[in-house]
Design the sequence.
């Protein structure tokens, strides 16, 4: 997979538009999901996904090693999402009703439970997490999402956010502590 | 270990970033501390829930549309890396700058060499014009010298003046610096 991506990146750097289209197809879902988890709404996530690939296209000359393409894409996406968060700070995003696609796309828990009570509990917990995450500063939120939700290692997060690993550890610790404090009751009942 | 001592390590404990000694120390502490156990449980639940969060797929149609939009927004060739020198005549500007730098270095070296030469010349002249010890002596063997001291004066005393026109009082003196 990585070799295939490196090959596509090398072709794209030589001007092959088909290779770029293939890269967009490969990364569009992951970029969109990441943006959605940071921004918590479809409209902004869509903007991030579009802008990320336009920036990738324009800045591909800056990428020296094709094997670092993945980090390069996530760095652009995360930085743009953080910028949007800062710009929209304090703005209330009008979330469309559940029937209005595609704005109705909501976060969910991947693990489905058959027990309706447990399902309701999970939904409540998810809503509380989303609400608590919205109050986190942009970089803490991005660190938490990249590490705990997307599953990147600390050094990968440091590379994406262009900061020292110690900063990632510190931001992660603070973000988790804040969420834990806000969700204490819900979490202890699990 | 106190409650304060372990809570800041719970995140690293769950991420598996602690040494085996630290891990076993926390395990021991958790077995006796209810507060830390509750904290660890809450953090584990949070981490599991976060890891379980998923964004429902907006569908292939959406991603096809996204690819088409990106394609239409990137019709021009990728921008080349732009440097601050990339303006018309940039090459000439760079050459001129290099030449000016070289000229400055050569001038500096030449000035240093010239100043050094002048200094040497001045010193040589000073040596030539300074009164010589034993100027009036007929032979080196005729001189007796006083001990030389810094800041003092040396005096050549003629023991046996050869030239009758020169009196003993005309002996040369020179300040030692």
Sequence:
């Amino acid at each position: 997979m990585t070799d295939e991506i490196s090959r596509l990146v090398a072709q794209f750097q030589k001007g092959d538009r088909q290779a770029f289209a293939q890269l967009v197809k490969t990364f569009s879902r992951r970029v969109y999901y990441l943006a959605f988890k940071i921004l918590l709404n479809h409209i902004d996530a869509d903007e991030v996904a579009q802008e990320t690939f336009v920036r990738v296209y324009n800045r591909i000359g800056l990428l020296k090693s094709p094997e670092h393409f993945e980090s390069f894409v996530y760095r652009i996406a995360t930085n743009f999402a953080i910028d949007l968060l800062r710009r929209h700070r304090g703005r209330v995003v009008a979330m469309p009703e559940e029937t209005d696609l595609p704005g109705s796309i909501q976060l969910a828990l991947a693990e489905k439970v058959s027990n309706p009570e447990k399902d309701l509990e999970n939904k409540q917990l998810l809503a509380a997490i989303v609400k608590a995450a919205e109050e986190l500063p942009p970089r803490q939120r991005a660190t938490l999402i990249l590490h705990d939700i997307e599953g990147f290692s600390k050094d990968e997060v440091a590379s994406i956010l262009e900061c020292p690993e110690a900063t990632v550890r510190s931001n992660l610790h603070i973000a988790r502590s804040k969420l834990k404090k806000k969700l204490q009751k819900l979490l202890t009942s699990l | 270990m106190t409650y304060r001592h372990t809570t800041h390590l719970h995140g690293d404990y769950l991420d598996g970033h602690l040494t085996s000694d630290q891990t076993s120390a926390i395990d021991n502490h958790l077995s006796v501390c209810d507060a830390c156990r509750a904290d660890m449980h809450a953090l584990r639940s949070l981490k599991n829930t976060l890891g379980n969060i998923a964004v429902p797929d907006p569908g292939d149609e959406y991603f096809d549309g996204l690819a088409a939009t990106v394609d239409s927004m990137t019709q021009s060739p990728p921008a080349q890396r732009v440097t601050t020198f990339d303006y018309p005549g940039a090459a000439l500007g760079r050459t001129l700058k290099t030449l000016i730098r070289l000229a400055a270095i050569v001038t500096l070296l030449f000035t240093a060499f010239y100043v050094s030469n002048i200094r040497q010349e001045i010193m040589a002249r000073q040596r030539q014009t300074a009164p010589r010890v034993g100027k009036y002596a007929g032979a080196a063997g005729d001189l007796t010298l006083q001990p030389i001291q810094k800041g003092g004066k040396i005096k050549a005393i003629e023991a046996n003046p050869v030239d009758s026109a020169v009196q003993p009082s005309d002996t040369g003196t020179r300040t030692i610096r």
Q: What stands out?
A: Chain A has two domains: 2-87, 116-188. The longest helix of chain A spans residues 17-39. Chain A has a mean pLDDT of 82.
